[in-house]
Specification:
It is a single chain. This protein is α+β, with helices and mostly antiparallel strands. Helix content is 36%, strand content 22%. A hairpin with a 2-residue loop joins strand 5 and strand 6.
């Protein structure tokens, strides 16, 4: 069942919880968050309490659910301009918008295999994190189970009236020596009751009582129908049984669903060791999700291979250490590019994308300045980082300075365009806004002179709208 108390906060914010959480609930939330932190090798907990009496709950860049002892803390991403200024999410409409945009980013980034048509059914009704998690698991799983529920030969042991397989001599002469009507036997049976299917059934059952979206609930119900002949087990047993699972050609098609089910069950109280039997933790790192999303958008925009996290050199020659790995490397029009994704709302609170000019006249009123100068919000460390990448690449390849770009999320409704300047090392420095809302162009079209440094022509048409909807983005990856 869904918890009675729900606290909705946005990422990187803190809200008062005095009178809303008991001491036991606070301790349970802290314990579950610490266990999740340890399991994922993080330096800081995704949730923490502060204040003299621990009466403020603070979040970081992880979004999702932490559920303990009848209370759920839902952490929402700042993917809507109205949420950026909010700490606690009280509007169902805002929560729904954030969830739709989160699902959109996960579609595009390829985190899960979701088609836009399928996701549209989910968005027709309000949805929570549980609905999204259920949909991510059940959509692929139902399609694969419809193709065929995986079976495997499992060794069975039982006392039966007639011989089946071979007689278990030890059991027969010790425990069944005086039973002439029962025979202890061992045999192999081709059955769907396998550790893999038990894992799926456990994950579907865990979510079934929490979902509220009809589309997600139907998908879970369909999966449970296919798995009806599979024995129910608890989360701890399900995870232990698949610890040394061997994959074959028939079952490998379920690997995506398997990974999702393991992540879901690993966050339950049965396996976290938090001491709370009713614990559920499932969190998504928004920094990583944004990086994956931008990689797909860049590939669609430049129509070229985008290499991610590739080493380009070290900050020390002797000893050779401190390897540098930019988020993205690609070549367009013969020019090398270096990109770095920054999940920071640099243009928060304004309608227009960043520009380098101090004051920009509006199209309708030349006396009205619009936008914020990029130099006021850019971090010196971020600029130093990408230009250092460019210098390492220039030295390593003995080539002209690479173009460098910082890509940042944009949720405004005004002017949507990139900005270009010149860095200290001669690199052209680009600020590229990236939309994080569904069914809109994801990256602004850059000027043609930016894309064709050697006269070879741009690798994409500078006047063509890019990635106008999720289908276009996904098809560009094929």
């Amino acid at each position: 069942m869904r918890p009675e108390t729900c606290i909705r906060v946005s990422e990187w914010s803190s809200v008062p919880v005095e009178g809303r959480l008991t001491v036991e609930q606070r301790e349970g939330i802290e314990a579950a968050a610490r266990v999740w932190q340890t399991a994922n090798g993080l330096s800081a907990s995704p949730l923490s309490f502060s204040g003299a009496n621990g009466d403020r709950l603070g979040s970081r860049q992880y979004v999702g659910v932490v559920e303990v002892a009848g209370v759920a803390v839902e952490i929402y991403p700042k993917l809507d301009r109205e949420i950026i200024g909010d700490r606690e999410i009280t509007s169902e409409e805002l929560a729904g918008t954030a969830m739709r945009n989160l699902l959109w980013m996960m579609e595009v980034s390829g985190s899960e295999d979701i088609s836009p048509t399928d996701a549209a059914h989910l968005e027709e009704q309000s949805m929570s994190f549980y609905d999204v998690f259920a949909y991510l698991l059940a959509k692929n799983l139902r399609d694969e189970l419809a193709t065929g529920v995986p079976h495997a030969y499992q060794t069975q042991r039982d006392t039966i009236p007639a011989v089946r397989g071979r007689i278990d001599i030890l059991q027969q002469v010790t425990r069944q020596w005086n039973r002439l009507d029962r025979i202890a036997c061992i045999w192999d049976e081709f059955t769907p009751d396998t550790p893999l299917n038990r894992l799926f059934r456990c994950a579907c059952q865990m979510l079934h009582g929490r979902v509220g979206n009809p589309a997600a609930a139907r998908l879970l119900a369909d999966c449970l129908v296919y798995l009806d002949s599979v024995s129910p087990v608890d989360a701890g047993t399900a995870l232990r049984e698949v610890r040394y699972l061997r994959w074959d050609r028939f079952s490998r098609r379920l690997k995506t669903s398997f990974d999702m089910a393991v992540r879901l069950l690993a966050g339950s109280g049965y396996d976290t060791g938090s001491g709370q039997a009713e614990t559920f933790v499932f969190l998504i790192d928004m920094n990583k999700l944004f990086e994956d999303y931008v990689a797909v958008a860049l590939e669609a925009a430049f129509q070229t291979e985008i290499r991610t996290q590739e080493g380009i050199g070290n900050l020390f020659r002797k000893p050779s250490c401190l390897s540098q790995r930019p988020d993205y490397l690609w070549v367009s029009g013969g020019q090398r590019w270096i990109g770095d994704a920054k999940y920071k709302h640099l243009a928060a609170g304004q309608e227009h994308a960043l520009r380098f000019e101090e004051s920009l006249p509006d199209d309708d009123d030349d006396d009205t300045p619009v936008g914020t100068s990029a130099t006021r919000v850019l971090s010196t460390n971020d600029v130093r980082q990408v230009t250092t990448y460019a210098e390492l690449l220039r030295i390593g390849h003995e080539s002209p300075p690479s173009d460098v770009a910082i890509l940042y999320p944009f949720v405004g409704s005004g002017r949507f365009e990139g900005a270009t300047g010149e860095a200290w090392n001669g690199s052209r420095f680009h600020l590229i806004p990236v939309r994080v809302a569904g069914c809109q162009e994801a990256i602004d079209v850059l000027p043609s002179d930016v894309c064709a440094a050697d006269g070879a022509g741009p690798s994409y048409s500078p006047n063509q709208s890019l990635t106008t909807n999720c289908a276009a983005l996904l098809s560009s990856r094929e």
